[in-house]
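User: Show me sequence and structure for the first protein, then do the same for the second.

Assistant: Starting with the first protein.
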Amino acid sequence: MTRSALRAWHAVHKWTSLICTLFLLMLCVTGLPLIFHDEIEALLDEDHPMPVVADESARVSLDTVLDNALAARPGEVGVFMSFDEDRPVVNVTSAPRHDSPEREMTLMSLDHRTGAHVAAPADDGIMHVILQLHIDMFMGPWGMYLLGVMGLLFAAAIVSGVVLYAPFMRKLDFGTVRAGRSARIRWLDHHNLLGAATLAWALVVGLTGTINAFAPLITGYWQADQLAEMTADYAEAEPPAELASIDAAVRTAMAAAPGMRPQFVAFPGGAFSTDHHYAVFLQGGTPLTKRLLTPALVDARDGALTDMRPMPWYMQALLLSQPLHFGDYGGLPLKILWAVLDLFTIIVLGSGVYLWLARRRKGVDARLLAAHGALEPSR
């Protein structure tokens, strides 16, 4: 590599690293407890056992569940309905209007066996605060996009670091830490070693985080592309005055996809549906296929299935990125590995800041010594 090319790569590595480091440190620190969010929430949340019923296999109609939920919120409408995987619980989100902003929505949990209200998951605890800081820094979509740009800069810093590390390793064995040299040189060796050790993980987490940060844009493109194509015949139709049975809509979607179960339902008029359809999002039964949702559109006027198709590749990338970013695929062992690599990355980021400050201090000291020598009288 030529000297000019090496200088260019060094400039890319330095400036991309400096710009994104503080953001990345915040993301790594907040991401550490989020890796264990299930375990932490289980410790922090109060225990709310499900009531015992005579017939555990019994299920009331989803229409009954919806009616009971909306009875507690007079004047509101259903926006979403989701289903717990490990409990017979249906979660109903209501709002004053179908297109109400998230801050006006209310989440209620109901027992699918009886239709009675049960304790809803807390959404205002410390883990919620940490998650919101990690996702958008309490800045909404613009905060997400800013963190997405930082993720791209982080990927550029990783790639440029690899390019710079290759000629450096021609002179030293891999993993060499020059213990007898100055503190700055030792930290440089640790920085390079841990950077190389966490390379693949950091790139995966950085890129999946970037994809997650641009989720509103990706979802919006899916709505304008695939969803619009699936509902083209309804472009001139009037929205239904009354909605068909949601229970029948879910059953119709499940009948069209044997072996799949509903994860959530978007009501007509909401962000993930249209003015004319229930959008029933189905998931598979394996750890991988339960992440790859398949939307089924059911006419909200008569309950007929109008279209069902797999998500396009860009939506599948988004759906797979969300759990992979936090190591949610492999249980506790993978989470522990994610946490260790997260700590290593914090050290890499911190040592990078230290090396930059130490280099600047060294340059300042050299200039001060040179100036001091120039001011001394000649002898």
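Switching to the second protein now.
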Amino acid sequence: MDLPYIKRSLESVLKKAASEFPAVVLTGPRQSGKTTLLQHLFGSRCRHVSLEPPDVRATAAEDPRGFLELYPPPAIFDEVQYAPDLLPYIKERIDANRAKSGQYLLTGSQNLLLAEKVTESLAGRAAILRLLPLSRRETEGRSQFPLAWERKREASSRSTLAFGDLWKRFLRGGYPELAIQPDRDSSLWHASYIQTYLERDVRTLRQVGDLIQYQNFLRILAARSAQLVNLTDVARDLGVAVNTIKAWLSVLEATYQVIVLRPYFTNIGKRLVKTPKVYFTDVGTLCHLAGLKDPEHAASGPMGGAIMETAVLSEIVKTLTHRGLEPRVYFWRTMSGSEVDFVVETESGLVPIEVKLSATPKPAMAATIKNFQADAEGKATSGYVVHPGDIRLPLGSGVTALPFADL
């Protein structure tokens, strides 16, 4: 039986890219729905082949021109990072008919090697887009619903979620398989996903030698989610070199498993050298690595705040990414310890966002946002205190308490 399809926000962007470029490269983590999306939009007119099986990969490597003759455009090639040497030959075929759009639709789950090869071979010929796991909007069938600060007026259609249901969703995360199969054991699914990720993605990258240590590294990052991450401390705890930890973190970022958040400074150079925070892209992955299976335990335990922050950041990043945009999100922290969880850089200014675990917002929760607004020298817009409850109310000049379900 065919599983139901969930409409993705990226659909219109993807169709536009395929109508304007000879090739489109769709990247994102494993199981985020890349193949399903391409087949849904283009499957009726494109041949499809996965480059992951060793025999298919070998054929592509041994006789790339013959392989492309076997699968002429328009074609969908999945997991193209397994056959990067095919890309120069795809370029050759594109250049023979440069004016024709939508010839090749390529997917990949490793940005580290793929981006380099695409830049070398398909510069100017390919649009590069990212598909992350489902946002809350997509899960609820409201994929075009704007973010809170983009609304010209209060939305006529609001989403409401009971507190317990919200935390159940956090535990499951946003991967499509779990969203369309609500009875499936999410803990077992995430365990299998992590193992597959380690075996298929991480093992192929030369920066990782010890998979057991790497899995320990994942758990340490989960425990330190939403905190300033001192890589020297992590290296000491694991008994490995700091450069190894840096390489491992780059692997996680390149395979779309984490978001590395840097502090906001007007001086962009400072953003790059200061201590970052690390969040998992999918809140379900975070909960699994933290060993959480019960919604009540997740909400009331020591990881509750980190889970809530991860859910908010994930929703913002997914929503913007699925419009074909590069999210510009930071955190703000002063030497005295005043901090705003997220600062979103938009065309209209800097949007400060605080995340609170309490479902009962109070004016005092807006204090650090007001500090940031004063410090930002007129660049800050109205701010938001996002919480898991269902109350929306003003918290003083320029700050609104906002339910997560209404973000």
